[in-house]
Amino acid sequence: MNKWLIALAVMVPTLIEIIDISIVNVALDHIRGSLSAGIDESTWSITSYLVSNAVIIPMTGWLSRFFGRKRYLIISITLFTVSSFLCGSAWNLQSLVFFRVLQGIGGGALQPISQSILLETFPPSQHGIAMAIFGVGIMFGPIIGPLLGGWITDNW
Q: Element (H or E) spanning 80, and its range?
């Protein structure tokens, strides 16, 4: 398979995961209003994601060896996607926080697995190029997240 296509394929989930970190920040006031939550309570929708994300990242190496890298990547993308839909369908703050925890678990594995796939796909002489491509997704995520969050909040 083409290594550049693989680079694009693993950059997209990472980009989406990075976008998701910042997308909620813009919508926090609307989340508070829609779910009748206070400022302190509504920030749990951000904190829960970040904590579960931080917990799963160091475990990713072991989990990817246990399940297999490809299978674990698919499981993580599926969990992230399903929990993203459930976050949008949350009926109260507790359900939103729970779904954000699941989302963080799914999203936390995407970056380390993507990096390992890139380093395995590219020869050592091109590791710098591979990580630069990966870095593009990481750099654009915080830019796109608030813009997309604002657009979604404004239109729905």
A: helix 69-88
